[in-house]
Design brief:
69% helix, 0% strand, 178 residues, elongated
């Protein structure tokens, strides 16, 4: 896991854990032991589900940037199916208070999202290629010079733009191919 991803995970998990403790205390005060158990189970579900997403996307980012979206979507779909399975499996169980469970899930989801946004906006993640260290080549492997925004191609190998319209340029290219 990248250090920035671990920082974001900690930045969201710690406030959510503290909010989970508050939800357990509120569940205990409102609905007794069953309320506390429902809130605790809700806290575990939220923290586990959101942590799985962060870990999956972080792992996928090591493979390739294109895999990040796939990992995020598949972890989301998997979590939806697991949640449906949990709801079906625990339908009619009276060991905990369902309202305390539901309210703790809602509250902790809001806390997690807010904390993750806060941690992400405070993270110092580079969006450009940094200057190369001494002894490295001047350009990056992608062909962008150091300091240029990622994804930009500033190589001098492309021809100068012409004053032709796109239609004229297409016709000229077709004539050269004959």
């Amino acid at each position: 896991m990248h250090s920035s991803d671990a920082r974001i995970l900690r930045g969201a998990a710690i406030p959510s854990g503290l909010a989970g403790l508050a939800a357990v205390a509120a569940g205990l005060a409102v609905a007794g032991g069953k309320g506390a158990l429902g809130a605790a189970i809700g806290a575990v579900v939220v923290i586990a589900f959101f942590s799985i997403s962060v870990v999956a996307v972080s792992y996928a980012s090591k493979i390739s940037p294109q895999m990040m979206f796939t990992a995020a979507v598949f972890s989301y779909i998997t979590k939806i199916f697991v949640m449906f399975a949990l709801i079906i499996a625990f339908d009619g169980v009276s060991a905990w208070n369902h309202k305390a469970f539901a309210w703790s899930v809602i509250a902790l989801t809001l806390v997690w999202v807010a904390a993750e946004i806060r941690a992400s906006t405070r993270a110092k993640t580079l969006y450009y290629d940094p200057e190369p260290a001494a002894g490295q080549a001047a350009g990056t492997p992608s062909g962008t010079p150091s300091g240029a925004p990622s994804g930009s191609d500033t190589s001098d190998s492309s021809p100068e733009p012409s004053a032709e319209s796109p239609a004229q340029a297409g016709t000229a290219a077709a004539d050269r191919g004959r």
